[in-house]
DNA sequence: TATTACATGATAAATTTTATTAATTAATAT
DNA sequence: ATATTAATTAATAAAATTTATCATGTAATA
């Protein structure tokens, strides 16, 4: 029994192939796919799976803290199995969404919290521009 | 002739009462309203105005850099006539969206840019938690 | 004031997400 | 293994937000 199965069972949630497929896909990609992308990708293995199941599973995974939802300014949400608060980069050229690791941003919440009267609990940081590949095309 | 009228005219865009009302509303509020909120608020002065006009005007204002679009994780966008890159705060309690002024975040783009191979051009920073009002209720 | 091109308003359509419900399936006990 | 039951799925409809269409209206210019 793997990790995800036990987490679901602990909470009285059923372990279904659809659920495992969705969370495993998210864990094995760095592409931050949308519900639609997840649906299309898994439809080869699960040809009868409904898009509603994808949404319901994502909602469930979100509520138990196994995935986070990203909003990069498109018409739809993207999903990330890395639930740590880490910055994302969105490329104007190819629209890819990458993780952006920069330790300078690690304790931003604490730093900002010192100067404000708000109770800060979470942060979402999005950076926009051109990825290394697209940068070449732009600067040429 | 005010500032906005001249900007529109310079670009060959017509100056209409609807357009002025929308941009003026955005300039005079700190509430970061959605298209729907703008529509409802202005419908007392412009009872025949269409929601499509609001969307089209916002799209136009965005394209000429007079407003920026915010994505705080709701189902709809919010709009801000302050186009400087400044962080926003979203309250889990009352869902209000405030500006969060913190000079520590001013040159984040430059700082992060030093450590990466991406060409960074813009940033959107969202902080979540409880506003001073809601904080009282939560901590009691 | 007339002309013309652009903007508006009304509506339909598209897109994304959520709700509904009967049928199916995982988990548990037998 | 099998039956039971409660949750999940799949299909579909519905809701919500945004975009497109097009006839009418209006701002800008002559």
Summary tags:
39% helix; 3-stranded mixed beta sheet; DNA-binding; alpha+beta; 5 strands; flat; two-stranded antiparallel ribbon; homodimer; 140 residues; Dna Ligase, domain 1; Arc Repressor Mutant, subunit A
**Largest sheet geometry of chain A:** 3 strands, mixed
Unreliably modeled segments of chain A: none
The number of distinct β-strands of chain A equals 5
Radius of gyration of chain A: 17 Å
Q: Which pair of protein chains has the largest interface, and what are the residue counts?
A: A-B, 38 and 38 residues
Explain how this protein is built.
The structure is a homodimer of 140-residue chains. Chain A starts with a helix and ends with a helix. In chain A, helix 2 (17-27) crosses helix 4 and helix 3 crosses helix 4. In chain A, strand 1 and strand 2 form a beta hairpin. Chain A is α+β, with helices and mostly antiparallel strands. Helices cover 39% and strands 18% of the residues of chain A. The first copy, chain A, contains six helices and five strands. The first copy, chain A, is flat, with a radius of gyration of 17 Å. In chain A, the strands form two sheets. A three-stranded mixed sheet of chain A has the order 4-3-5. Chain A has a two-stranded antiparallel sheet with strand order 1-2. Chain A folds into two domains: 3-80, Winged helix-like DNA-binding domain superfamily/Winged helix DNA-binding domain (Arc Repressor Mutant, subunit A, Orthogonal Bundle), CATH 1.10.10; 88-139, Dna Ligase, domain 1. The model of chain A has no long low-confidence stretch (mean pLDDT 93). Chains A and B meet through helix 5, strand 5 and helix 6 of A and helix 5, strand 5 and helix 6 of B. The first copy, chain A, binds a DNA duplex (30 and 30 nucleotides) through residues 9, 12-16, 18-19, 34-36, 48-53, 55-57, 59, 75-77.
């Amino acid at each position: 029994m793997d990790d995800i199965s036990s987490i679901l069972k602990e909470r009285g949630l059923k372990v279904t192939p659809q659920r495992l497929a969705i969370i495993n896909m998210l864990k094995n990609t760095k592409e931050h796919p949308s519900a639609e992308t997840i649906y299309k990708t898994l439809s080869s293995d699960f040809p009868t799976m409904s898009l509603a199941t994808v949404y319901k599973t994502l909602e469930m995974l979100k509520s138990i803290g196994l995935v986070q939802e990203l909003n990069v300014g498109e018409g739809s949400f993207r999903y990330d199995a890395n639930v740590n608060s880490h910055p994302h980069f969105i490329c104007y050229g190819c629209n890819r969404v990458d993780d952006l690791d920069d330790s300078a941003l690690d304790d931003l919440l604490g730093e900002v919290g010192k100067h404000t009267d708000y109770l800060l609990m979470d942060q979402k940081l999005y950076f926009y521009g051109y990825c290394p590949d697209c940068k070449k095309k732009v600067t040429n």
